[in-house]
Amino acid sequence: MGAMAIAEPAVTTARQTGRADNTDILTKHDVHQAKDARQTGTMQATEQSSLHKIRLLYFFFRFSTGSLIPFLPLFMSSCGFTHEEIGRLQAIRPIVTMISGPFWGALSDRTGKKKLILISTFVISAICRLSCAFFKDDMQLFAIALCLTSLFYAAVTALLDSIVVSSLSSKQRLNFGKLRLWGELGNGISSTLMMHVSNNEAYGFEHLFVVHGVSAAVAVVFMSLCTPSNQYNQQKTKANGIAKNDDIIDWRRNLLDVFTNAEIASILGAVAVTGCSISVLENFSYINIKMLYKLHGQEDRLGQEISLYRMFHTSGGMLTWWWSGSWQKRLGPNGVIFASVCCVPLIFFLYAGVGDGLDVWTKIGFAAAEAIRSAIFAAMWSSATIRMNMICPSHMTAALQAIMDASYRGVGSTAGAYFGGALCKKFGIANAFKIVGKSFVSLLCMLGAVFLSSRTIGSHAPK
């Protein structure tokens, strides 16, 4: 009995000790779980804050460019420049972009100073663009200012997209379009507001330069806040294995590998063809619309209805940027690029006029063409940017993005301006649009036939 009496307290003590140990273990486990939850919540909050800054960056960046760049031809016309002189001045940007864009991309990749190059080139390009207001009486100085603007601005768009996509995780990259749509929103708002300002005699073009300067300064603030530091980019560059002694050898070999890659070459070709087509439309579609309104005595409604068409343009781009990630999940980036190219002929037929004269159906066609044109660019650019970032060498992302930008805004825009100008001069704008649309359909049918025949031959080939 005595032994049992002694054993019972011992057992009780052991049980209490066990419960205490279990309580300690549970308490430590709960503490770890709470700590992990707090860390996860902090990371998610930081990530969301970073994404909000990127959205605001794109908004103010495109707001600043949309407040002035689309209206430069009108400003040149108000300065007394002839149509021929305006055409020559407008040709400066694509030519300079085609030459200087890849240089800026390669420089930022090799040095790792992407943030410094992005901010400095954007600031200098904005200053040069603002200086055009002081050279409106001298075409030569105006051309020099435009050339310097194009030289530095050639780095900005491609480098910004490259930095943003590279900073996103593999899952977040499909949401790149949802970030980019804020730029489309900023561009749409600024271009609509500035169109009314430029048409108002109480304000004039001088106020466009003021708005451009202020919004560009705000964009610079967000560039400094939400882009990775130069030290981070340099460490990433070193981690990717770029040694100082073999920079030239590596770059020559990698550039050769990139341009001999069939998928990269096909994407660059699709981007250039799309850029050429959209350049034809951008240069001559509004001229055709203005001629139709003047011919049918509706010139007084032109400004108001073009503003409405621009709203459709903005809406089409925003919706496409938003849904581009979902489409890429279903079709893949290359599938979206191919579908975008297939839709290009439709825009030419709509701009050529689908109704009788300037009736309701013709105006609906113009609005639809504006929305589809913006949607094609958004779908193609989002998919091409993401796919290029996935398949190119990690230390060449900015260079390849700049090459793609040069293919679109350089090669494509230059070819479109000269090719479209020759066709429109010979056949008239509406007939030229129909010719380009039919030629595009024929080309797509030929490529489809070649693709199907190659698959048929391959399926019957001996194993």
Structure classification:
mainly alpha
Order of helices and strands: HHHHHHHHHHHHHHHHH
Total number of helices: 17
Low-confidence stretches: 1-11, 36-43, 240-249, 457-463
**End-to-end distance, in Å?**
91 Å
Mind explaining what this structure looks like?
This protein is 85% helix and 0% strand. It is mostly helical. Helix 12 packs parallel to helix 14, helix 12 (262-295) runs antiparallel to helix 15 (360-391) and helix 16 (397-427) packs across helix 17. 40% of the residues are buried.
Gist of the model:
This protein is mainly α. It has 17 helices and no strands. Helix 12 (262-295) packs parallel to helix 14.
Keywords:
disordered N terminus, single chain, disordered C terminus, 463 residues, globular, mainly alpha
Protein topology:
Elements lengths: L1 H65 L5 H7 L4 H8 L1 H20 L2 H18 L7 H15 L2 H12 L8 H24 L6 H21 L3 H10 L7 H13 L2 H34 L6 H41 L1 H9 L7 H32 L5 H31 L1 H32 L3
